[in-house]
Structures are given as C-alpha cells and as structure tokens.
C-alpha cells in the first residue's frame, strides 16, 4: 500500500476529493430514511399535508445533492485510478531502463509485460473500487448501524450476528483466494511467454510445420490458467450465498421483532419503515465490502509483483566522483573471473589476463560457450566482474560514469536490433546530431549503401519493428553503421558479420581500418577469414585464454586455432567463398 500512496503523485488531490464527496453522498443517503419516518409519523398519520410537503421538498433536495456528490466522486475516482496506473507504468518502465543485464536476467520479458498490463489494470480497478466503495461501504455501515441503535437498541444487537458471520466467512475466502491468485499471475507469465515466443519466431514455426505443436503448448498454458481461475472464482462464489444468509436473517428478525414492538407500542410505523431502509443499507454496505474483498484478493497478488520491479535496484552504480572522459582505447584484463550468478561457482570466464593496445585490431575466436560475448560485455560494463579488474583507457571501468564509458565503447551485439522508423532514425541512435552526410559515410564504411541506394525512398525507407522488412545481412550492416556514428574509442563487433558474405565482410574490415584507424577494434567471429588479418587473435576455450598471438604464430603454436583453420580450409573454405 505504501507503493500505491507514493505513486499517486499529483492525483492525491483527486483521491481526497473523491473520499470527501463520497462521505457527503453517504450522509445524504443516511438522512433520507430518517426524513421518511418524519413524513409518516408527523405528516401522514396526523394528516398534516404542510409537513409532508416541507419534508418532501427537503428529500428531493437531499436526493439531488446525493446524486451530484456521487457523480463528482465517480469522476475523481476515475481520474485518480487511471492516473495511478499511468504513474505505475511510467515508474516501472523508467526503472527497467536503469537495470543492468544482471537485473534484467531476474525477470522474464513476458513477466515484465504482464506486470505492466494485466497486473497494473487489476490494481487500477481495485483502487477505483477502494476509494469509492471501500470508503462508502464502511461509512454507510457505521451510520446505518448508529441510526438503527437510535431507533431500536435491542433490535440493532441482532445485526451484529450477521456482521460477525460475514467477517469470518469473507476473511477465510480472502486468505485462500489470495494464494490462488498468486499462482494465477505466474501462469499469465507462462501464457505470455508462449505467445511472444511463437509470434517472434513465426517464420521458423511455419518453416518446420510446427503449428500443431505450438497450438498444443499454448492450449496447455491456457488450460492451466483456466483451472486456476475456476478454482479462485469458485472460492469467491461463496460470497453471494453468505450474503444472502445474512440478508434473510436480518429481514426475518426485523419483521418478527418489529411487529412485536409496534404492537407493544415501543416503535412507530415510521420507525419500522426507516429501520428496514437502514437494515438494507447496512447489508448493501456489507455486500459492497465483499466485492472489495474479491478485488483486493486479485490486486494484492498483482501489487506484490509490481512492487518487485519497483523495488529492484540496479546492480551497477556510478562512483561518487565518476570519470567522464575515456583517455584512449587501450584495454586491460587483470586476472578477471566472472560468473552470471555470483557465488554459484559456474564461471563464464576464469583468470583472464590480457592487454590490448589502443588502436589495435583484435580477433576473438572460440567454440560456442567459450566466453567470447561474456568477455566483451565486461569492457562496456554491462556486468561487473567477480574478481580482478577490467581497465579501459588505463582506468578501472567501475571508476567511469557508465554513460560516458558506453559512449566511447560502441558494441554491435550478437542479436542485432532495429527499431520501427526510417533508416535515418535508426542510424541516429548512434548520434542524434549526425548529419545526412555523416550517416551516408557510416553506411559506406559498413557497405550498407549498396542496398540502401536500391530502395525507392533511400534513407527515408521505413524499417518495420525489429527490422522485419530487411535481411539479416542488411540488418547487421545498418547496426555497424549505427555504431560507427558514435565515433568510439573502442568498437566491438560481436559476430556481427555472420550473415554477410566473405567479400562484403572483407570490404567492411578494410573500410573500418581506413575510417577509424585510431579506434581499438575487437572482432568476434566464427570464420578464420574474418580475423586472420587482425593484429592479434585471442583464442578462448571454456572461459580461459588458450592463445593470444598473430595468425601465423597461432598456426604454429596453438592446437585449437590450427584445428579450426584446417577444418575450414579443408572443408572448402566458407560457404560463400570458392575453395582455392
């Protein structure tokens, strides 16, 4: 609940207005049966029409005021709940932007989507109900019971039996239902994961004719969600029977005992009439509270999941006095050990000790899982090391302002991502102030101009979400051009030319050497042809350095490198390169 109050922000005023207007609405409604009793006792039974007219006019005014207060309260409730939902979404989104990769690894993408959609919608509906009904119902309950006591203290005691009965039943339902709803929203994550995976990989699904398999997987996730919802709603279905038991009990008691009191002369007909009204108001307030219980049962599970994201703090922090400038592109790994789960004992990198001079071109090669991507992720501080030190420009990366470091260490990741928008808009992610000429120059260096010039709209061609309307090789070249626009001191290409032919790959490497000669370039590749021209080549094996030397020396001294080289050469070279 503290999270809710903090996120209300400027909508707290609307919340206060809603609560105040709801209280005034309840006051008007509570006084109406009292006025009705006066009309019956002082007007109708004594044939006094002026009294009837006078109190009748007062009732009309009070009813209109109640209507106005209720309408305004509803308006402010809608504003406050919708505003809260907007603030929660913005806060979650902003907090996610501060996460390091290790933070993001704790939450699945479908889980974050569910929290920002289904969970926040549940909280929004609950808050709207709470600030309206959870204020209205207790006030109505208290005021109605006070009026019942004023009319008949003896009869009002019987209502406590109904109240205690409902509190016990509804409390038990809420405790059990909340546990079930916790499971429900975890199953929502599974359902969203199934949908996201299927849609993002729909081409693969169709290529392998796996539609039936994916349908069965989705049906299983949907069925699990269905069963849990049936269980939860089945528990909540006990609300209405419990309410009806209390309602009929109170009606029977008022009718039977009220008749005895009228015959005995201790109660008037008007008082009995108003007592029926107050009893119904009291029971209606209990029914409204039962609805609040249902909504709170659902929203508490959602609120906890939202709080998990908001309470998550970034693992990476800037130092108190961060360095804002990277001196050069030199890189040093001093006995670095790293694991994705600290303390797990499963190291991705172990005792890495290597030193790269500024302006060097370094090739990195190794088998799958050898730690190539893990190595370069540490250079731009996407993760922190377990032990040892990574230095860029002669300083520990943990001493830099994170944004300043990443501005000078440009990475083209293994999974290339383009965003919906024009080619120019995507390129300017690298440099928002880049001119058209600078964008064109970067594209020439990345050999992207070859296909851009063939598009009818050129650089204004629109890229669909995720780059769905360009090929894998075109996407890679656009991402390289985007990275070049940052004019970094370190450029990392993480297997980012795997989808282009060897001829284009060679052109890109030649262009990089000419356009950014002073930039340290780290090229991760599976092909020997992509790295053999590098100044030095790093061979990784199972997270350790197996070799670090020139192409010629590694052929003589490193068994792993020689085996990779011979397998590719004897196999006829790369798939798109004719064998010599």
From TrEMBL:
Q: What name does the UniProt record give this protein?
A: ABC transporter ATP-binding protein/permease
Keyword ATP-binding tagged: yes
**Where is the chain membrane-spanning?**
16-40, 52-73, 133-152, 158-178, 245-263, 275-296
Where is this chain's protein located in or outside the cell?
Cell membrane
Show where the ABC transmembrane type-1 domain sits: 16-298
Q: Which Pfam families match?
A: ABC_membrane (PF00664), ABC_tran (PF00005)
Q: Which UniProt keywords apply?
A: ATP-binding, Cell membrane, Membrane, Nucleotide-binding, Transmembrane, Transmembrane helix, Transport
Sorted alphabetically, which InterPro entries does this protein's record hold? AAA+_ATPase (IPR003593), ABC1_TM_dom (IPR011527), ABC1_TM_sf (IPR036640), ABC_transporter-like_ATP-bd (IPR003439), ABC_transporter-like_CS (IPR017871), P-loop_NTPase (IPR027417), Type_1_exporter (IPR039421)
State the organism of origin. Answer: Candidatus Flavonifractor merdigallinarum
Look up the domain of life of the source: Bacteria
Domain ABC transporter positions: 331-567
């Amino acid at each position: 609940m503290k999270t809710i109050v903090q996120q209300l922000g400027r909508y707290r005023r609307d919340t206060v207005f809603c609560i105040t207007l709801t209280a005034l609405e309840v006051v008007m409604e509570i006084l109406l049966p009292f006025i009705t009793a006066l009309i019956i006792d002082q007007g109708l039974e004594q044939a006094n029409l002026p009294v009837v007219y006078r109190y009748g006019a007062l009732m009309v005014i009070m009813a209109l005021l109640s209507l106005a207060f209720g309408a305004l309260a509803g308006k402010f409730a809608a504003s406050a709940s919708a505003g809260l939902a907007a603030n929660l979404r913005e806060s979650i989104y902003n907090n996610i932007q501060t996460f390091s990769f290790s933070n993001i690894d704790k939450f699945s993408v479908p889980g974050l989507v569910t929290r920002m959609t289904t969970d926040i919608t549940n909280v929004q509906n609950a808050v709207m109900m709470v600030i309206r009904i959870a204020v209205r119902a207790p006030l109505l309950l208290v005021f109605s019971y006070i009026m019942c006591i004023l009319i008949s203290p003896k009869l009002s005691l019987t209502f406590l039996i109904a109240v205690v009965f409902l509190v016990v039943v509804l409390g038990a339902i809420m405790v059990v239902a909340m546990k079930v709803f916790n499971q429900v929203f975890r199953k929502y994550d599974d359902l969203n994961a199934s949908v996201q995976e299927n849609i993002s990989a729909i081409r693969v699904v169709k290529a392998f004719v796996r539609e039936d398999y994916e349908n069965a997987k989705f049906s299983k996730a949907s069925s699990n969600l269905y069963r849990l919802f049936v269980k939860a709603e089945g528990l909540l279905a006990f609300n209405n029977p419990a309410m009806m038991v209390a309602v009929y009990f109170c009606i029977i008691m008022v009718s039977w005992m009220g008749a005895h009191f009228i015959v005995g002369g201790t109660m008037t007909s008007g008082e009995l009439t108003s007592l029926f009204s107050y009893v119904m108001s009291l029971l209606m307030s209990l029914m409204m509270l039962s609805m609040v219980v249902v909504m709170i049962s659902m929203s508490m599970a959602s609120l906890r999941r939202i709080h998990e994201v908001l309470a998550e703090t970034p693992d990476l922090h800037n130092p108190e006095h961060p360095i804002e400038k990277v001196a050069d592109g030199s890189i040093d790994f001093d006995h670095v050990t790293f694991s994705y789960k600290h303390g797990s004992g499963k190291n991705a990198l172990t005792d890495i000790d290597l030193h790269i001079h500024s302006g060097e071109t370094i090739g990195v090669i190794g088998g799958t899982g050898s730690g190539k991507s893990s190595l370069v992720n540490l250079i731009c501080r996407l993760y922190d090391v377990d032990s040892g030190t990574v230095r860029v420009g002669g300083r520990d990366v943990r001493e830099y302002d994170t944004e300043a470091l990443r501005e000078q260490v440009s990475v083209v990741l293994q999974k290339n991502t383009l965003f919906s928008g024009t080619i120019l808009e995507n390129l300017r992610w690298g440099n928002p102030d880049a001119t058209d000429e600078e964008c064109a120059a970067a594209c020439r260096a990345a050999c992207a101009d070859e296909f851009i010039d063939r598009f009818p709209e050129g650089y204004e061609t629109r890229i669909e979400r995720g780059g769905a309307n360009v090929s894998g090789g075109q996407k890679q070249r656009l991402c390289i051009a985007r990275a070049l626009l940052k004019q970094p001191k370190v450029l990392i290409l993480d297997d980012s030319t795997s989808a282009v032919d060897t001829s284009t790959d060679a052109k890109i490497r030649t262009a990089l050497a000419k356009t950014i000669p002073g930039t340290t370039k780290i090229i991760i590749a599976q092909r020997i042809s992509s790295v053999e021209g590098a100044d030095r080549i790093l061979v990784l094996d199972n997270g350790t350095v197996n070799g670090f030397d020139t192409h010629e020396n590694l052929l003589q001294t490193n068994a792993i490198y020689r085996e990779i080289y011979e397998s590719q050469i004897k196999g006829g070279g790369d798939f798109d390169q004719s064998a010599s």
